[in-house]
Amino acid sequence: MSGLHPMKEIVKKQKMGVPVGIYSACSANDLVLEAVMERAKESDDVVLIEATANQVNQYGGYTGMLPADFRNFVYNLADKVGFSKDKIILGGDHLGPLTWKNEPAQSAMEKSKELIRQFVLAGFTKIHIDTSMHLGDDNANEKLDTKVIAERGAVLAEVAEESYKELKASQPEAIHPVYVVGSEVPIPGGSQDEEEGLQVTRVADFEETVQVFKDAFVKHNLENAWENVIAVVVQPGVEFGDESIHEYSREAAKELCDSLKKYPDLVFEGHSTDYQTKFAFREMVQDGIAILKVGPALTFALREALFSLSYIENELITENTGKKPSGFIEVLEEVMLKNPDNWKKHYHGDEHRLKLARKYSLSDRCRYYLPLPEVQKAINQLFENLKSVKIPLTLISQYMPLQYIKIREGKLNNDPVSLAKDRVVNCIDEYLYGCRQ
Prior knowledge:
Elements: H1 6-15, E1 22-26, H2 30-43, E2 47-52, H3 67-81, E3 88-95, H4 105-121, E4 126-129, H5 146-170, E5 178-181, H6 203-219, H7 223-226, E6 229-234, E7 239-240, E8 245-246, H8 250-259, E9 267-270, H9 278-286, E10 289-294, H10 296-316, H11 328-338, H12 351-360, H13 373-387, H14 393-399, H15 401-408, H16 416-435
Parallel strand pairs: 1-2, 1-10, 2-3, 3-4, 4-5, 5-6, 6-9, 9-10
Antiparallel strand pairs: 7-8
Helix pairs in contact: 2-3, 2-16, 4-5, 5-6, 9-16, 10-13, 10-16, 11-13, 14-15
């Protein structure tokens, strides 16, 4: 990438009345990211791939990766699928004190500064600065003051700017990062409460956020950095929980989206857009929500594919074949029961409901377990077993009907890895329907 940041191009087109957007793949799953890049390669697109602060940070996050490790991980996948690294925008999502929100503000912010520094130095050029959460010594009974949120955001932007100067000294071609800010930021990974009311951000709150953040940047002599703020995170009325999806309502978001017209350099970033319809994505992009974040929906689609392949495997791999089925579904359940930390706060109800949620919840907490050695071993065995036989079209028609059609039309290979990734592509294509108009 050189010249104008691709995200700025999107803002420029939006302001010219051209309804274009970009979806952001917030995932650290190799099969998902391969599918993202392979699909972009077909259409010669750029991709936006983001790592969240609890996923990747200076302590390794839940993936065990530092920001530079994640960059290398993505670039290695790009080499594997033959995708140009110049077409990859790396983003840092929810960068701020999210992971350390229970600590006092001083220590949480010090860790946040190092987090931002490492992301920028690793070449991430889309930085979502998120300081919207209460910290350990904030009064949790009061709404966090927007001025406090903006002040903390400006402190982190200052670190990002200094880190970029350091990077540019050693890499003169390094592109300047763009920033996303906001004070009403949905939590990563979907709602934890099915019943909570969902309010579209009020125009007054959005406008106050922009003004207060701008003032904080100016106070820190960050006028140049402010010119690189391209988007504000708002709540446009989309969210998902365990079994529920809050559908986008253009009517409910109209006043908020109309207010965006006053800001010639800003678009909206929509979080938790997973599971919206392709028609909703199209409306959102037309309404100025030009950056659509997706994470759980991608791994949800992959999990569906792996379950379907497991059912196919159970039909084909028997004692007569001399092979043993992978037992992927059972292995995943066993591992989730042994290590409940990543799902127990999110899933509620009796044992039957919990069992259903572990498998099928839209929150897709099982994505945290896919990288574990036992689960990876089962996935690899599943793929190897199905590569050793010819998968009958009848079984693909039964369990993966969309992929069956593509195979019949000569658009897809009949092998387990291609089948799994193509189920993810079904999800990607719905985003592309909205983003390319």
